[in-house]
Amino acid sequence: MLKLHAPSDMFIPIAPYAQAIEASDASRILFISGTMGLAPDGTLAEGFEAQCECVWQNIAATLKSAGMDFKHLAKLTVFLANKDDWRTAAAIRQRYLREHKVAMSVVQTSLIDPAWLLEIEAIAVA
After folding, report:
1. CA angle, 26 as apex, 25 and 31 as ends, to 5°?
2. Kind of pairing, strands 29-35 and 118-125?
3. Given CB 3.0 to 4.6 Å as the disulfide criterion, which of 13, 62, 93, 111 pairs with 116?
4. Rounded Cα distance, 85 and 121, in Å
5. 95: CB partners within 8 A, 6+ apart
6. Strand-strand pairing, 73-80 and 29-35
7. Beta strand 20-23 with 2-5: parallel, antiparallel or unpaired?
């Protein structure tokens, strides 16, 4: 259902992501709001890696609630408080996604709460 596009007249992706994802025959689209490193009890994980792991656990829980999993993800937008964390974020992302690729953007920005070190929003299709 998800088809990757890699135009030959465009640069090769600089990380494990797809230039574009086409969702054909999709009957459901799930828009996941920006997700922070908050545990189910509302406490914030300490440090970037812990927050990143928590974000992915939150995304997994949201996908599961919709009867989906990581292979249904088509698009991610990652917001980082510190641009130097992008490699760590990418490594953790790939542990969850494994070989699955998504269309994605990574943006360095200030977040609403200065204690939040990243936020990820996602789109999944089934």
Report:
1. 160
2. antiparallel
3. 111
4. 17
5. none
6. unpaired
7. antiparallel
The token duo for 122 is 């996602």
Residue 2 is predicted with a pLDDT of: 83
Q: Are 62 and 99 in contact (CB under 8 A)?
A: no
User: Residue 108: which H helix or E strand, with range?
Assistant: strand 103-108
Which H/E stretch holds residue 89? helix 86-97
> What amino acid is encoded at 88 in this protein?
T
Residues whose CB is less than 8 angstroms from the CB of residue 106 and which lie 6 or more positions away in sequence, other chains included: 77, 78, 80, 86, 89
Tell me the C-alpha distance between 31 and 43, whole Å. Answer: 24
- Burial of 124 from C-beta contacts in 10 A (0-12 / 13-18 / 19+): buried
pTM: 0.88
pLDDT along the chain (126 residues), means of 10: 82 81 86 96 97 98 96 97 97 97 96 97 96
Strand partners, 85: none
Encoded tokens for 48: 């970037």
Q: What is the three-class DSSP state of 29?
A: strand
Please state, in angstroms and rounded to a whole number, the distance separating the CA atoms of residues 21 and 102. Answer: 7
